[in-house]
Design goal:
single chain; 297 residues; mainly alpha; 12 helices; 0% strand; globular
Length: 297
């Protein structure tokens, strides 16, 4: 198999997860922006702790750096987050990071709106997506493949618990020959999943790496044009929206099938009918709820 076919295969198998991440991330970004703009006055917004933390970081750290120092800062910060997404795969950390990042983008759009006026609602997000087309896409790819791995890992563990309890009076970690044969049936699937994880994590990290110098050197210069010509910013944002819509559309049908499966598993859970995938869903809900609590607290 050629490298090109292998890479496209990894993207195809993860297309449903990519669609879920993109749709969830952009929905959260829009809702976050609308919420902050409608729920708070300028004075109230400025007093929120997360807003002060964000503005202090921008004014007292990033703004005073030169371009090369900012590039190194972005490399250090963003690649560290990518690594945390990989190491935190079993906690759905990648998906939650993508959601939280877009929540913060909504907050930063509101911050610029109150500081610089309505024209910033177009200019600022357009400036973000100059480098965000690489950086955010990299985050979404990593989030998607880690979401897929985490879901299948917990589902596999749920299945392991189920098959090790068959025809036994007491459950044990020790596997019978029949149970081992049942597990080995999934050996190819596991190898493929690990290949997809390593491949897409490498691609996502590479995108994030490339985005850092663009964010430091290019985005401020082109962003200045967006501030002077909001129409240009609007056209660019429409193009960005179409780009991500096309990405989400690639896996939309698979996503619908997967979401229907999750809905059916949820219904069965409420009926007290155990299925292995319900363990995946339970762990996802727990860590997603913890992320929401951290955001709103």
């Amino acid at each position: 198999m050629s490298i090109r076919r292998a890479v496209f295969g990894a993207f195809r198998r993860s297309s449903s997860a990519i669609s879920i991440v993109v749709i969830a991330a952009f929905t959260v970004m829009i809702l976050s922006t609308v919420y902050y703009m409608l729920a708070f006055t300028s004075a109230e917004f400025a007093q929120k702790p997360e807003v002060r933390e964000y503005e202090n970081a921008v004014e007292n750290k990033i703004v005073i750096m030169d371009e090369w120092a900012r590039t190194q800062y972005y490399w250090s910060n963003n690649l560290r987050v990518a690594g945390a997404c990989a190491f935190g795969t079993i906690t759905y950390f990648g998906f939650n990071t993508a959601v939280a990042t877009n929540y913060m983008i909504g907050m930063s759009i509101t911050s610029n709106y109150y500081r610089y006026g309505p024209e910033s609602v177009l200019a600022f997000p357009a400036m973000i997506f100059i480098h965000g087309l690489l950086e955010l896409t990299g985050i979404y790819i990593i989030a998607a493949v880690s979401l897929r791995v985490a879901w299948n890992l917990w589902r596999g563990l749920g299945g392991l618990v189920a098959i090790t309890g068959k025809e036994r009076e007491h459950w044990s970690w020790k596997l019978t020959k029949g149970e081992k044969r049942e597990i080995l049936k999934h050996r190819h699937t596991i190898k493929l999943l690990l290949f997809d994880f390593v491949t897409l994590f490498a691609i996502g990290s590479f995108f994030i790496f490339l985005a850092a110098p663009i964010e430091a050197y290019v985005s401020p210069a082109i962003g200045y044009i967006f501030w002077l010509a909001p129409v240009v910013a609007a056209v660019f944002l429409v193009a960005v929206g179409l780009f991500y819509a096309l990405i989400a559309a690639r896996g939309f049908n698979r996503m619908r099938g997967d979401l229907k499966f999750v809905w059916n598993e949820t219904r069965l859970a409420f009926k007290r009918k155990w299925r292995p995938a319900q363990l995946s869903l339970l762990i996802f809900v727990i860590f997603f709820a913890l992320m929401l609590l951290r955001i709103i607290s």
